[in-house]
């Protein structure tokens, strides 16, 4: 059975506000993206995922949609989307758009009507509830449930006009849609068909596993992987794209391997893959994102191996270290100060040679790092601002709060793309909405494209390996050295082909003791790709007993040369 096309794909994520600004207003836009497709094509990615560009008050930078079938003038026009689709298709590339339907913006006409009056036909398009237990609106504990918003505070916003609360799992300007209402589901299906008719090739579904909710009068209920979630996801698949082969990924906070098998089992006809978060939470303490704990690679390897094994027979993994919601990988997991290039390459090798579809977030292919925020006023992200405010109100010192946000904030991913060393990094001729990272004079595309030693070139090589060797796409994953504190080593096997991948994810040298059988098997195998290796290292890599900081390589066996 031939692969669906997306199984050999590599997806490049574009955050339109920060990618390329064509009109000098300091905010990226679609014509800017159109002008930079060569970069993405040269990298080797064949799918472009564009974060939301729809009309929006930008309370959450577009993840608060006020019209699903148009483009915010900030980003351009529908004609620009059509041009983008045509240009990508001419290049043999595809477009994946971001579908945010767990919630809308509070400026969306649906919500304006729903809020308008309790007997408005759209009232039931959202979750309205009276205060609990006969209490008065706004009383402490009167919220219909005790749920906490992802962005801090309660999930219920009081509406004095109607004396009721409405639900928002994220910001209060992002009211949740009521998917129990069949009209809501039918309207979303229609909207997806409308975009498909326009030529888009796939969808990224924002927090899609939160759309099935139960809310009981006693204040209990659930919203993660709710009781009708598979019915809703399958219903959407059947109604919107049926058996057309799109690329679809469901963002699913709180999803387990077991759940993911159900969401991504082709027979279930829901999604091709999901974004899971377990590997993103290895350095999160019990209080979540802003509860900073040290990274433990042994725990990280356990998570990665569990997902590789868990979806080996059924389903499919997405592979990512970063996106617009995460700090920059080289700063979070690497060593941008002493080993930026080596650590960026080693992290990429470990990710791209696993089984699944890799996602490259804009700038990751250049080794872009976190921005050195030196004041809380510089923050834009609603989640970080809310958390900082609450932390200060709880008496935490400004410096401490700044240090935490500098470790975990989402704004790091959202600083402008670094195209060259010019004052605004070639991103804009105006004043960027977020400051350009001062390291752009060193870390930029112009300095890397064409340089065989660059991080960019390393990503090109990894993507070429995926295209060249089916073992990279389909090979079974087997973790080696699970207890080693810094070395990530694994094999991939498919029929008589095999790869050995070894990386020392530390700024300290590390002793390597591979199982004898593995050493023997790969002793004479050619190095398909290596980085951070000491010049003319002593002997064949697989026989080596010591790895340099951030040294990484992949050796093959039984591959046609
Ligand atoms: O993100 C959902 C999500 O998981 C993150 O918001 C995360 O939970 C949060 O940062 C907690 O630390 C999606 C989008 O990717 C994100 O940009 C949006 O802000 C969010 O949904 C709401 O639409």
Per DSSP, the total helix count is 18
- The mean pLDDT is 96
The Rg value, from CA coordinates, equals 24 Å
* Cα separation of the termini: 26 Å
Which stretches are low in confidence, meaning pLDDT under 50 for 5 or more residues running?
none
Q: What structural class do helix, strand and pairing data support?
A: alpha/beta
What hetero molecules are in the model? Answer: 1-O-alpha-D-glucopyranosyl-D-fructose
What is the global morphology? Answer: globular
Largest beta sheet: strand ordering: 11-10-7-3-2-1-15-14
Q: Describe the biggest sheet?
A: 8 strands, parallel
Report the β-strand fraction as a percent range.
15-25%
Helical content band: 25-40%
- Strand runs, count: 22
Structure write-up:
With 561 residues, this protein is of the alpha/beta class. Helix content is 29%, strand content 16%. It contains 18 helices and 22 strands. The chain has helices spanning 16-19, 30-34, 37-43, 78-90, 109-116, 182-198, 229-240, 257-264, 297-310, 329-332, 340-352, 382-393, 398-408, 411-414, 445-448, 455-468, 470-474, 516-522; strands at residues 11-14, 47-50, 94-99, 128-129, 156-159, 164-167, 202-205, 214-215, 221-222, 247-251, 273-275, 284-285, 288-292, 318-319, 357-361, 476-480, 487-494, 497-504, 510-511, 527-531, 546-547, 552-557. The strands form six sheets. The chain has an eight-stranded parallel sheet with strand order 11-10-7-3-2-1-15-14. A five-stranded antiparallel sheet has the order 16-17-18-22-20, sandwiched between helices. The longest helix is centred in the middle third of the chain and has 17 residues, at 182-198. It starts with 10 loop residues before the first strand and ends with a strand. The mean pLDDT is 96. The structure holds 1-O-alpha-D-glucopyranosyl-D-fructose. 1-O-alpha-D-glucopyranosyl-D-fructose is lined by residues 60, 63, 100, 150, 170, 206-207, 251, 253, 289, 324-325, 383.
């Amino acid at each position: 059975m031939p692969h669906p096309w997306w199984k050999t794909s590599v997806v490049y994520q574009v955050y339109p506000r920060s990618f390329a600004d064509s009109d000098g207003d300091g905010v990226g836009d679609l014509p800017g993206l159109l002008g930079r497709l060569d970069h993405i094509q040269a990298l080797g990615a064949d799918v472009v995922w564009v974060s939301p560009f729809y009309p929006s008050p930008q309370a959450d930078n577009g993840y608060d949609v006020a019209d699903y079938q148009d483009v915010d003038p900030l980003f351009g026009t529908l004609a620009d989307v059509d041009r983008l689709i045509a240009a990508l298709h001419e290049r043999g590339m595809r477009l994946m758009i971001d579908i945010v339907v767990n919630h809308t913006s509070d400026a969306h006409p649906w919500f304006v009507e729903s809020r308008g009056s309790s007997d408005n036909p759209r009232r039931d398009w959202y979750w309205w509830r009276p205060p609990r237990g006969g209490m008065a609106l706004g009383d402490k504990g009167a919220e219909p449930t005790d749920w906490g918003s992802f962005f801090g505070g309660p999930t219920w916003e009081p509406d004095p006009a109607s004396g009721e609360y409405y639900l928002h799992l994220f910001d209060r300007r992002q009211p949740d849609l009521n998917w129990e209402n069949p009209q809501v589901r039918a309207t979303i299906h229609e909207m997806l068909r409308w975009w498909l008719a326009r030529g888009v090739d796939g969808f990224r579904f924002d927090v899609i596993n939160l759309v099935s909710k139960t809310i009981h009068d006693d204040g209990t209920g659930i919203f993660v992987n709710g009781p009708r979630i598979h019915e809703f996801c399958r219903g959407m698949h059947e109604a919107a794209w049926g058996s057309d082969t799109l690329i679809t990924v469901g963002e699913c906070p709180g999803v387990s391997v077991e759940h993911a098998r159900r969401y991504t089992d082709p027979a279930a006809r829901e999604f091709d893959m999901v974004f899971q978060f377990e590997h993103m939470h290895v350095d999160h303490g019990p209080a979540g994102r802003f509860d900073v704990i040290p990274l433990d690679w042994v725990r990280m390897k356990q998570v990665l191996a569990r997902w590789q094994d868990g979806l080996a027979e059924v389903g499919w993994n997405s592979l990512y270290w970063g996106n617009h919601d995460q700090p920059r990988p080289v700063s979070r997991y690497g060593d941008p100060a002493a080993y930026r290039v080596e650590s960026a390459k080693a992290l990429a090798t470990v990710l791209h040679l696993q089984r699944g579809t890799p996602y490259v977030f804009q700038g990751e292919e250049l080794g872009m790092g976190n921005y050195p925020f030196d004041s809380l006023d510089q923050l834009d992200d609603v989640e970080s601002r809310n958390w900082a405010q609450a932390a200060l109100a709880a008496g935490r010192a400004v410096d401490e709060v700044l240090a935490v946000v500098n470790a975990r904030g989402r704004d790091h991913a959202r600083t402008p793309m670094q195209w060259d060393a010019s004052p605004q990094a070639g991103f804009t001729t105006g004043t960027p909405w977020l400051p350009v990272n001062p390291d752009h004079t060193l870390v930029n595309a112009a300095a890397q494209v064409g340089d065989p030693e660059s991080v960019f070139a390393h990503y090109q090589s990894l993507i070429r390996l995926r295209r060249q060797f089916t073992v990279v796409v389909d090979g079974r994953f087997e973790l080696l050295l699970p207890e080693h504190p810094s070395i990530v080593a694994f094999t991939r096997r498919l029929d008589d082909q095999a790869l050995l991948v070894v990386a020392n994810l530390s700024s300290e040298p590390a002793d390597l003791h591979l199982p004898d059988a593995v050493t023997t098997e790969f002793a004479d195998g050619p190095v398909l790709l290596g980085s951070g290796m000491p010049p003319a290292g002593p002997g064949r890599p697989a026989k080596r007993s010591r790895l340099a900081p951030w040294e990484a390589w992949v050796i093959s066996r039984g591959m046609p040369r």
